[in-house]
Design goal:
This protein is an alpha/beta fold. It is built from four helices and five strands. Strands 1-2-3-4-5 form a five-stranded mixed β-sheet. Helix 1 runs parallel beside helix 2. The longest helix is centred in the middle third of the chain and has 16 residues.
């Protein structure tokens, strides 16, 4: 798994690629927490290059979403791969997140 963080004017973009499994989910959680602790509460996670996400990965994203929302921010998902979208649906999480077809639309939604 690879994670890239870009800061924009009002939004922090987190691009994830590869497999988010039980071993790598911790790294994703640490990255999200670092951004939140730095005061970045408007987050977009681009999942277009994620080929697999485990329940541990979903847990880290849900946890981060709760943290930013309690601070008045939000976490939005950009262009999840079909496999990731299917996992979000099976987990009943599609309603929890605003999901956008492109990174530009997700960032522009703030």
């Amino acid at each position: 798994m690879h994670i890239s963080v870009s800061e924009m004017r009002r939004v922090t973009l987190i691009e994830v690629s590869g497999r988010v499994d039980s071993l790598s989910a911790t790294k994703l959680g640490e990255t999200l927490n670092e951004q939140i602790e730095a005061g970045h509460i408007q987050l977009v996670i681009d999942l277009s290059n994620v080929e697999y996400i485990s329940s541990a990965g979903l847990r880290e994203i849900v946890s981060a979403a709760k943290k930013v929302r309690s601070s008045g921010g939000d976490l939005r998902i950009a262009s999840p791969s079909q496999r990731v979208r299917d996992v979000l649906q099976l987990a009943g999480l599609l309603e929890l997140f605003q999901i956008f077809p492109t990174q530009v639309e997700a960032v522009g939604s703030f």
